[in-house]
Amino acid sequence: MPKPDESPDSGTEKKGITDSVLFSLIGYRLKRVYMQIQPLAQRVLAENDLRVVSFSCLSIITDNPGIVQSELADALQMERSNLVVIIDELEERGLITRKKIPTDRRRYALTATLRGRHLRDRAAAKVRTAEDEVLGWLDEDDRDRLLTILGRLERRTAR
Amino acid sequence: MPKPDESPDSGTEKKGITDSVLFSLIGYRLKRVYMQIQPLAQRVLAENDLRVVSFSCLSIITDNPGIVQSELADALQMERSNLVVIIDELEERGLITRKKIPTDRRRYALTATLRGRHLRDRAAAKVRTAEDEVLGWLDEDDRDRLLTILGRLERRTAR
DNA sequence: TATTGTTATACTCTATAACTATA
DNA sequence: TATAGTTATAGAGTATAACAATA
Predict the structure, then answer these.
(1) Is B109 at the interface with chain A, CB within 8 A?
(2) Of A60, A119, B103, B151, which is the most exposed, with the fewest CB atoms less than 10 Å away?
(3) What pLDDT does residue A55 have?
(4) Does A37 sit within 8 Å of B27, measured CB to CB?
(5) What is the pLDDT of residues B51-96, one digit of tens each?
(6) Kindly report the CA angle at A63 between A57 and A66, in degrees rounded to 5?
């Protein structure tokens, strides 16, 4: 059963270099594709003075008004200590607000402002377009399949 | 046409938190899956005193005897300056050898030793097993589909 | 006691610039 | 003049430990 034609032996193949063993590891493959997309996203987000991580924060805050920092850190799988400066900046720029929660004065409710929500929407559209530079090579079926399969892999986060 | 049943609205969903906009961006999704796999690979490689990057180097050198550092840097898409200490360590541990190339004395031919090749093989097997902790949720078809689709996305590196 | 936000700090990764020896 | 390997260094990104306020 001869495979259609697909990749002859393996990946890279710039000047006869092979990475056939690495090529069979998904971690390696995922990273390579991610590293193709990441700089594109970075570039378009920078046009709005956003980094990938601050855009992610703004996006989740937009979709979850009233979320607190430890929940946000949890959602983005990062340390809450590293969130502080990011949240500070988003607040200073008037993209989000921090509001005391009366019932638990340790926590602050984070909410996106109108400006923040609009910026999020514009930025998200730009990132989507940027991603298409890479994704463009896929037809609709492949795109759906990829997202579905990634979804199955993401299921177990807590383990 | 109602989709089978799949993900209700979006991702995370730990405590009502939604990331529906981010969820539609593949960069975000790829990173999340990669970040699930990476620590597992890191852990098993550490058992052999290897980091992900040093394992990658050892693996490519094993498969490409005589490769030189700048080619290796190119294959792994990293700066050649950052390769130096890694190559140094692999050589000190007797996993690879550096040999002057008579025709161009600026370059050194890198070749894996027998020990290096064996370590690579053992380590690769471990990583494969570790990845299965995540990949296990996929059937064979999905696994093939994922690798095929990633292959299509990787095609354009030079652009 | 435990948790939230915070600060300070360390550690890893990656990027850049400059040097040397060769070509 | 350009390239391979090297060095040193700077900058992100991430992780850890400890603290004050609050629960």
Answers:
(1) no
(2) B103
(3) 98
(4) yes
(5) 999 999 999 999 999 999 999 999 999 999 999 999 999 999 999 9
(6) 80
| Chain B residues inside the 8 Å CB shell of A12 | 75, 157
Please check whether strand C approaches the CB of B51 to within 7 Å.
yes
Instruction: Kindly indicate the confidence band of residue B33, based on its pLDDT and cuts at 50, 70 and 90.
Output: very high
Compute the 3-state secondary structure of chain B and give helix, strand, coil in percent, each to the nearest 5: 60, 5, 35
Q: Is A35 on the interface with B (CB under 8 A)?
A: yes
Q: Could you say which residues from 39 to 98 on chain A have a Cβ atom under 8 Å away from some Cβ of chain B? A: 41, 52, 56, 59-60, 62-64, 67, 71, 74-75, 77
Domains and CATH numbers, chain A: 25-132 (1.10.10.10)
Instruction: Report the pLDDT value the prediction gives residue A156, as an integer from 0 to 100.
Output: 59
Minimum distance, in Å, between the CA of residue A92 and any CA atom of chain B: 23
- Tokens standing for A149? 């399969």
Query: What's the pLDDT at B32?
Result: 96
Measured in angstroms, the CA of A8 and the nearest CA of chain B are apart by 11
